[in-house]
Write a structure and sequence with these properties.
Blueprint (H helix, E strand, L loop, with lengths): L12 H7 L7 H13 L3 E4 L6 E4 L1 H14 L2 H22 L5 H8 L3 H11 L6 H11 L2 H4 L4
Antiparallel strand pairs: 1-2
Helix pairs in contact: 1-2, 4-6, 4-7, 6-7
């Protein structure tokens, strides 16, 4: 649960398998743990589209942030979070030519909270500016770069 604290807002099981896994926790174990947290009502699930989206309750997230900091894992998990969203937006750019604009915005537009959280970490004193720069380049709104039709 503590590793989910890096997510700001909603996230997917795919994001959990990439971000929360690591060390002694396999990707499949991270997803199983997510399901257990949903069962215990510590994580909310929204199944309004093809992909389920999860969210920590704010009080649960506050507790998990404390536990993540105490564990000494915050920097590793935050780096995986930032790299996951950098890779996600690298892929998103490729989908601009294959998805209708509306579908693209539905899929990627709500990820802004995750990008902000990742950039907050990346440009913090203990972050990694090079990761932040790569994420910034990947996540620049396509409308600003002329990539949206």
């Amino acid at each position: 649960m503590r590793r989910l604290a890096v997510f700001a807002g909603d996230f997917t099981a795919d994001a959990v398998s990439s971000v929360a896994a690591g060390g002694e926790i396999a990707a499949s174990e991270a997803v199983c743990s997510l399901a257990n947290l949903v069962t215990k009502s510590l994580v909310m699930v929204e199944v309004g589209s093809v992909i389920a989206h999860y969210r920590l309750h704010e009080t649960t997230r506050a507790y998990a942030v404390e536990k993540l900091a105490e564990s000494g894992e915050f920097e590793q998990v935050a780096r995986r979070h930032a790299n996951y969203y950098r890779n996600l937006f690298d892929s998103a750019e490729m989908e601009l030519n294959t998805l209708p604009t509306t579908a693209w915005l539905v899929r990627y537009g709500h990820q802004i909270g995750q990008v902000r959280a990742a950039l907050d970490w990346a440009y913090s004193p203990t972050g990694a500016a090079e990761v932040g720069a790569a994420l910034t380049v990947a996540a620049v709104p396509p409308a600003l770069t002329g990539r949206l039709p």
